[in-house]
Write a structure and sequence with these properties.
Order of helices and strands: HHHHHHHHHHHHHHHH
Structural class: mainly alpha
Radius of gyration: 24 Å
Largest sheet: none
Number of domains: 3
Length: 398
């Protein structure tokens, strides 16, 4: 443990428990290693096993560990201040100016259809990407002048929320994925296909444009997140629940769901967090979902660069992807991507967690989420590589 080799320490402790299950130190040191890995539920079980041994029954250090972990696992009350209304920009004579509206431009659904369509000429698709970039730039120009947390912020603007709910970010990400794979394919066909080089170059232009817009779209959450410490704590708590022993996502695809005491405990803790409407709104907000994306990108970058302990980095990759997938499902549980890109009927969908959790506790539903988690990891791994490839090294904090 003092060499920070946590996985090896855990393996040693587990062997020690196997050899001497009646010795309190074997269980205690297993608990210490598990706690260091972030698995508080299993750590608590190990400390309780240590306390139950003959030699450990009166040990105050073990009792202290158990007390602290039990206090840590209690639900934390979260209080989120209401967003202040931003005064409308005023033109000459103190009258609100149409040219300087705080609302900003609405996105056009045609842009999303165009960038996702392989049958469209690449030049047209790049033009649509640039139009999304222009839409985004106008919103950023307004919102970067404001203090995040003290006024309406980028991810709270109705036009921004409307275009994101219409699928803007996912359309960009899906197209980046498809385009990067296409570039790889074209590069491999250069010897056989005379047009492959030109096709690869055109696809690279499209991928570069898409990557730049995604960079600019994700970046505001970095600045805003510094003022949202309660949001960060809530996302961390949700991720911790998702890695509990009773979570169906801990098992491989095809594993049947069995509703035992551990699964019930997992379900109860999910409900404790998500049943609070304030917490649900925060967790399903675009700023929190964007933060889960950034955490996933950062962990994937660390994994590729072999920074940090392998098991710990892989665990953070998995946790961020799980949170991202489930929170997106909760956001759109009532009516799909309900907001219109053109601003008509642009009311954001109302998040709901019950149908998402109910589905997760079925064999088919759990497999669907497991598939989505794998796809999220693969897509964001491609995006992290694209940031470096197309000149955004160091992008969005990775």
């Amino acid at each position: 443990m003092k060499l920070n080799k946590v996985s090896q320490a855990l393996a040693d402790a587990e062997k020690c428990v196997e050899l001497r299950p009646e010795w309190e130190k074997s269980h205690f040191r297993k608990g210490v290693a598990l706690e260091e890995k972030g698995d508080d539920a299993l750590a608590l079980e190990s400390f309780e096993a240590a306390l139950a041994t003959t030699t450990g029954s009166g040990n105050p250090e073990i009792a202290k560990k158990i007390k602290r972990l039990k206090q840590k696992s209690k639900p934390v009350p979260f209080h989120f201040p209401k967003v202040k209304e931003v005064p409308k920009a005023k033109g000459n004579g103190g009258v609100a100016s149409a040219n300087h509206s705080n609302a900003g431009p609405v996105g056009d659904a045609k842009w999303l259809t165009s960038i996702k369509s392989p049958s469209e000429p690449v030049a047209n698709r790049i033009a649509s990407v640039n139009q999304i970039g222009g839409w985004l730039a106008q919103h950023l120009e307004t919102h970067l002048k404001r203090t995040p947390g003290e006024s309406e912020w980028f991810f709270e603007n109705k036009q921004v929320v409307g275009f994101l709910d219409a699928g803007c970010l996912d359309a960009l990400l899906d197209t980046v994925t498809y385009t990067v794979v296409s570039i790889i394919q074209f590069e491999s066909e250069k010897d056989k296909n005379p047009n492959a080089g030109a096709d690869a170059a055109a696809s690279a232009d499209l991928a570069g444009a898409l990557t730049g817009v995604l960079h600019n779209l994700l970046h505001p959450s970095l600045r805003a997140w510094q003022t949202r410490k309660q949001h960060a704590a809530l996302l961390g708590a949700f991720e911790q629940v998702l890695r509990m022993e009773g979570s169906p996502l801990n098992f491989e695809k095809g594993t049947s769901i069995s509703i035992d005491d551990k699964t019930k405990q997992f379900t109860a803790l999910c409900a404790k967090i998500l049943n609070n409407q304030g917490a649900l709104q925060v967790l399903c907000g675009h700023d929190t979902i964007a933060r889960a994306r950034l955490q996933l990108l950062r962990a994937l970058t660390q994994r590729d660069r072999k920074e940090g302990e392998k098991d710990d980095v892989n665990s953070r990759v998995e946790e961020s992807a799980r949170a991202l997938v489930l929170l997106k499902r909760c956001r759109y549980a009532n009516g799909g991507n309900g907001a219109a890109a053109d601003g008509k009927n642009s009311k954001a969908p109302s998040p709901a967690w019950e149908p998402v959790l109910d589905n997760l506790l079925t064999d088919q539903g759990a497999d669907e989420v497991r598939d989505d988690v794998r796809v999220a990891i693969e897509q964001h791994a491609l995006l992290a590589g694209a940031f470096v490839k197309f000149g955004f090294e160091g992008s969005v904090g990775i």
